[in-house]
């Protein structure tokens, strides 16, 4: 069975999630944007074995700590989709623009594609490509616990910004409608910022995607 714990990191309060298999104690960190001390403490406190870092997209608040953590712990970086290569290449400029400490460059061990499946311990997690906020944005669907880690695609009551380079509003709406909604109204999502919600709630009340 999968379990998770979410830790807000960086001045942007980005929701980094520690996800693990409670049979094997193998764990991943989804979007380790920074505050590596707090992330390491969360892993150690639960006596977990970190096996990889998973990225939804390559904005600095989500990916800024990945390079250093991967190097120091000898971990592979999985994701995002190759469409975010330009955001990884631009990590130094992102650091400057948002006043973050310099982020280490990294190369993902594996780019993700729509429909990929990742194994964590004795569980499987599905990957959906959800472009719009960034071209290479992916989400992680843990169907067995009805959870989806959606990064900056969808928030409780809002949706991701599309005014950055490579952003596309209509594409984001299409991603939400065709790739998130089919996971089911009762699926709880963990957004990149702010509180959890479920897809049914957003389909009814979120002004950006209501009734879609
Ligand atoms: Zn973002
Ligand atoms: Zn973000």
Quick overview:
The protein is an alpha+beta fold and 212 residues long.
Report what the structure shows:
It comes from Azohydromonas caseinilytica. It is a single chain. With 212 residues, the protein is of the alpha+beta class. It has one domain: Ribonuclease Z/Hydroxyacylglutathione hydrolase-like (Metallo-beta-lactamase, Chain A, 4-Layer Sandwich), CATH 3.60.15.10. It is 25% helix and 28% strand. It has 7 helices and 13 strands. The protein has helices at 36-45, 60-63, 66-73, 85-89, 91-98, 169-180, 199-205; strands at residues 2-9, 14-21, 26-30, 49-54, 77-78, 117-120, 123-129, 138-142, 147-151, 154-155, 158-159, 188-191, 197-198. The strands form 3 sheets. A 6-stranded mixed sheet has the order 6-7-8-9-12-13. It has a 5-stranded mixed sheet with strand order 1-2-3-4-5. The chain has a two-stranded antiparallel ribbon with strand order 10-11. The longest helix is centred in the C-terminal third of the chain and has 12 residues, at 169-180. The termini are far apart. The relative contact order is 0.15. The mean pLDDT is 97. Bound molecules: zinc ion (ZN) (2 copies). One zinc ion binds next to α2.
């Amino acid at each position: 069975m999968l379990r998770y714990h979410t830790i807000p990191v960086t001045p942007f309060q980005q929701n980094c999630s520690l996800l693990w298999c409670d049979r094997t104690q193998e764990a991943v960190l989804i979007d380790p944007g920074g505050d590596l001390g707090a992330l390491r403490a969360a892993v150690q406190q639960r006596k977990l074995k970190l096996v990889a870092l998973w990225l939804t997209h390559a904005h600095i608040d989500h990916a800024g700590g990945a390079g250093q953590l991967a190097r120091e712990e000898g971990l592979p970086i999985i994701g995002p989709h190759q469409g975010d290569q330009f955001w990884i290449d631009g990590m130094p400029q992102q650091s400057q623009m948002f006043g973050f400490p310099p982020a280490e460059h990294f190369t993902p061990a594996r780019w993700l594609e729509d429909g990929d499946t990742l194994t964590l311990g004795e569980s499987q997690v599905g990957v959906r490509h959800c472009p719009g906020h960034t071209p290479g944005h992916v989400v992680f669907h843990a169907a067995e616990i009805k959870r989806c880690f959606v990064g900056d695609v969808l928030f409780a009551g809002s949706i991701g910004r599309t005014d950055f380079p490579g952003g596309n509003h209509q594409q984001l709406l299409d991603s939400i409608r065709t790739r998130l909604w089919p996971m089911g109204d009762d699926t709880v999502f963990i957004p990149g910022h702010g509180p959890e919600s479920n897809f049914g709630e957003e389909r009814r009340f979120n002004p950006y995607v209501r009734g879609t």
